Amino acid sequence: MGYTKAAARELKATNIRIHAINPGGVNTNLVRSVRPDIDTTDLIPPEEIAETSVRRRTKQP
What we know:
Helix content: 40-55%
Largest sheet: none
C-alpha cells in the first residue's frame, strides 16, 4: 500500500489515477488445493474482484 500511496501522490498533478485492490482471501483453485480445510464461504470470488477492477477503470473522476 505504501508504494500505491506514494505513486498516487507523485502522479496527482497528471491525469493518471492510482488505485489498489486488496481483497484478502480469494476463492481460487490454488487456495482450495493448498488449503482444503478452509471455509470457502468466507473467501471472495475472483469475479467480484474483476468487476471491481473494471468499475474502477471505467469510472469517470
